[in-house]
């Protein structure tokens, strides 16, 4: 018997005026998994999240939480993209309030708030007002408010926003812990390197529709016509005849998925990158590297989530531009 | 989506706790009775000092030559008949003395008091409070002089002047209204009005403040928009009740302290009915304010349509004088059952003793029903409008919201 998904979204549609923000989106979030919900700005992510949180109602489609059409808001936690804090409130009071809204008694909420402030390193600030904290620390309080009631489903919209790398690591660890405790985490983030490390499955959307869905390997295979790996070449072009690099790029283009990219480095080297089908034969490509060029490094790596994202929701042209930024 | 029972309570408790720990709220609630006490004491002091000070008034009789001679009428309480002389005993001199406040006023008779049928009165400002009393006194003196000239003794004159001794029988409950009744009715109305406005202001801060801080979205992921709005309405109504109870108790203590008589109609029944109407009315107004604030980002962004709604609590003031004059008139009875007016007008009418037993339950039921309906509208407006950041809503948009499910 298949385990009932924690959250099941089927064919939801939501329009504002004449614009269709969400157009027949379907996905599931399972208990204990971190589910990456990705897409460019304006793709319909926040609208979808608001719909599944019961803040807005979809025009069509079905949302089931633990098999029921009735959302039990006490079992859900939410960290919105934009900070939603009661800024003039004392931090501990604000967290206790959020806990009581989620069904905790004041005593239980106070204990949970104190525990979470300890975990995010803000115990000493418990009696301060929220607006006295830095942006990153406010985000920590917001995170604590979203999960202090141990929700079955945590919806985290851009949790890494405003955090330094150390605190990004702290949040990554906390999110993993939530998953390990059985909480389903729906993570929407533009920090794709972190999402790639954290998420068990992904849904990439564009224009309110699904662009890619599955595990990282699955979406990697499906991305950009089967390009699964990236060939990186570092070439020394000094003394080579004019057009040698262009010759290499042209030779790669006949094998690559999308246009290869050549970029001159400050140290005189040229970095050439090309997305190749998984298991591509490199011999004919390497034979094209004659003509006076010196090959200093050859490296094959898997397509990153960033590259998958750009190729699937940004188009091939954007992929060519962005591929080196991964 | 079904609501959890009582999930509005954490919102209400939060609002109450937050308000009761706000320094400005505590100060305003405690300061108001002190201000009223101070104003009452100051007014009383001024009136007493004013009453204790005698009025210097000159009475003069014009001679055929045009010269004036002073007249000393019989004594009159609080009045000292001045006897000017020298340069003062001319029309210009008397006017100068009055202007210089050496005299409170002057009365110039065209001839002997017994024959005078008119008088010139010199005053600083038109129709001073003493004028009617002094002229009435002088008229009576003149009348007695004329009667004596006609051979009538004082007993015969008293018979001629005798007024009908009336024994009034008031047949309607609100027929006899004392100054204390009026003052109590006015105090009740002003207390209600002050509380409605105070709570409206605090709701504005509470709702638009949360919208601007973007915390509404987090809260509405935990409770429904309706529960959130119900919690706000309940919380601020409780705050309002606490405020008005404190103010009313303070007002009663101040009235006792200043020896100001309370209305004879003040009774536990009146208090219970007024408080019930007040609670229902405050819920209604909180729901009205909730609806308004749900549709705006902040007070500055409200449209003229929304601004008109803010003036609804002022409307009962327009009818106040009519209610005071004729608390049992048909139109007053009808208006005092309109939900937005009932919390103001019905307690006033009860204080004036003009309310039938069926009126309070009817008005209470209508007010409670209207509050219940409007809190639904407020919750709906909140749910539809909560995502509207930085955008003003128009009347057609409001109508469209009402149709959205």
Please provide a written account of the structure:
The complex is a heterodimer of chains A (326) and B (405). Chain A is an alpha/beta fold. Chain A folds into 2 domains: 7-214, P-loop containing nucleotide triphosphate hydrolases (Rossmann fold, 3-Layer(aba) Sandwich); 222-325, BMC (bacterial microcompartment) domain (Alpha-Beta Plaits). Chain A is built from 10 helices and 13 strands. In chain A, the strands form 3 sheets. A 6-stranded mixed beta sheet of chain A has the order 5-6-7-3-8-9, sandwiched between helices. A 4-stranded antiparallel beta sheet of chain A has the order 11-12-10-13. A 3-stranded antiparallel beta sheet of chain A has the order 2-1-4, with helices on one face. In chain A, 43% of the residues are buried. The model of chain A is unreliable at 316-326 (pLDDT under 50). Chain B has 405 residues and is mostly helical. Chain B has 2 domains: 54-161; 175-403, no CATH class. Chain B has 16 helices and 5 strands. In chain B, strands 1, 2, 3, 4 and 5 form a 5-stranded mixed beta sheet that branches. In chain B, strand 1 and strand 2 form a beta hairpin. The longest helix of chain B is centred in the middle third of the chain and has 34 residues, at 179-212. Chain B is elongated and about 95 Å long. The model of chain B has no long low-confidence stretch (mean pLDDT 85). The interface between A and B is medium-sized, with 33 and 27 residues. Chain B: This is ABC transporter permease. Chain B: It is a multi-pass membrane protein. Chain B: The chain crosses the membrane at residues 25-47, 185-205, 233-258, 270-293, 305-323, 330-348, 360-378. Chain B: Keywords: Membrane, Transmembrane, Transmembrane helix. Chain B: It is found in: Membrane.
């Amino acid at each position: 018997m298949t385990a009932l998904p924690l959250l099941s979204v089927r064919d939801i549609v939501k329009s504002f005026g004449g614009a269709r923000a969400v157009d027949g989106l379907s996905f599931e979030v399972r208990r204990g998994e971190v589910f990456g919900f990705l897409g460019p700005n304006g793709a319909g992510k926040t609208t979808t999240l608001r719909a599944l949180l019961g803040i807005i109602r979809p025009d069509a489609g079905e949302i089931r939480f633990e098999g029921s059409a009735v959302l039990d808001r006490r079992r859900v936690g939410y960290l919105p993209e934009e900070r939603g804090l009661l800024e003039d409130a004392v931090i501990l009071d604000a967290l206790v309030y959020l806990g009581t809204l989620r069904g905790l008694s004041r005593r239980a909420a106070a204990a949970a708030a104190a525990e979470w402030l300890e975990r995010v390193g803000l115990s000493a600030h418990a009696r301060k007002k929220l607006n006295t904290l830095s942006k990153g620390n406010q985000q920590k309080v917001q995170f604590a408010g979203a999960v202090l009631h141990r929700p079955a489903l945590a919806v985290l919209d851009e949790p890494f926003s405003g955090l330094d790398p150390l605190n990004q690591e702290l949040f990554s660890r906390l999110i993993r812990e939530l998953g390990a405790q059985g909480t389903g985490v729906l993570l929407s983030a533009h920090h794709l390197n972190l999402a790639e490390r954290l998420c068990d499955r992904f849904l990439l959307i564009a224009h309110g529709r699904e662009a890619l869905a599955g595990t990282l390997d699955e979406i990697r295979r499906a991305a950009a016509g089967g390009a699964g790996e990236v060939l990186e070449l570092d070439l020394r072009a000094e003394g080579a005849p004019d057009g040698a690099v262009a010759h290499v790029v042209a030779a790669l283009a006949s094998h690559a998925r999308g246009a290869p990219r050549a970029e001159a480095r400050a140290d005189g080297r040229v970095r050439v990158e090309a997305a190749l089908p998984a298991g591509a034969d490199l011999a004919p490509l390497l034979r094209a590297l004659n003509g006076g060029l010196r090959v200093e490094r050859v490296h094959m790596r898997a397509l990153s989530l960033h590259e998958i994202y750009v190729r699937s929701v940004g188009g091939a042209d954007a992929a060519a531009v962005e591929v080196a930024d991964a | 989506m079904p609501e959890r029972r009582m999930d509005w309570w954490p919102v209400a408790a939060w609002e109450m706790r937050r308000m009761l720990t706000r320094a400005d709220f505590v100060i305003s609630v405690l300061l108001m009775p002190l201000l009223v006490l101070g104003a009452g004491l100051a007014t009383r002091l001024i009136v007493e000092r004013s009453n204790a000070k005698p009025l210097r008034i000159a009475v003069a009789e014009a001679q055929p030559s045009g010269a004036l001679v002073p007249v000393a009428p019989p004594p009159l309480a609080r009045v000292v008949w001045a006897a000017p002389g020298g340069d003062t005993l001319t029309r210009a001199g008397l006017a100068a003395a009055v202007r210089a406040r050496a005299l409170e006023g002057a009365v110039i008779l065209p001839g002997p008091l017994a024959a005078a049928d008119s008088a010139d009165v010199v005053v600083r400002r038109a129709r001073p409070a003493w004028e009617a009393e002094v002229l009435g006194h002088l008229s009576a003196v003149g009348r007695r002089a004329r009667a004596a000239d006609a051979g009538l003794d004082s007993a015969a004159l008293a018979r001629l002047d005798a007024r009908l001794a009336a024994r009034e029988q008031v047949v309607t409950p609100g027929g006899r209204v004392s100054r204390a009744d009026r003052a109590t009715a006015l105090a009740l109305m002003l207390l209600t009005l002050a509380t409605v406005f105070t709570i409206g202001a605090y709701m504005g801060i509470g709702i638009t403040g949360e919208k601007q801080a973007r915390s509404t979205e987090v809260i509405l992921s935990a409770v429904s928009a309706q529960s959130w709005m119900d919690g706000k309405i309940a919380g601020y109504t409780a705050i309002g009740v606490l405020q008005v109870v404190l103010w009313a108790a303070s007002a009663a203590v101040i009235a006792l302290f200043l020896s100001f008589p309370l209305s004879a109609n003040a009774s536990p029944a009146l208090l219970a009915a007024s408080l019930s109407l007040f609670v229902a009315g405050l819920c209604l107004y909180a729901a009205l304010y909730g609806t308004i604030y749900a549709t705006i980002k902040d007070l500055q962004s409200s449209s003229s349509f929304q601004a008109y709604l803010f003036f609804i609590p002022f409307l009962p003031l327009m009818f106040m004088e009519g209610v005071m004059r004729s608390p049992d008139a048909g139109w007053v009875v009808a208006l005092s059952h309109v939900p937005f007016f009932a919390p103001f007008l019905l307690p006033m009418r009860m204080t004036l003793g003009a309310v039938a037993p069926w009126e309070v339950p009817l008005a209470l039921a209508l007010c409670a029903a209207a509050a219940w309906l409007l809190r639904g509208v407020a919750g709906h407006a909140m749910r539809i409008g909560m995502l509207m950041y930085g955008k003003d809503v128009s009347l057609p948009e409001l109508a469209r919201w009402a149709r959205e499910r």
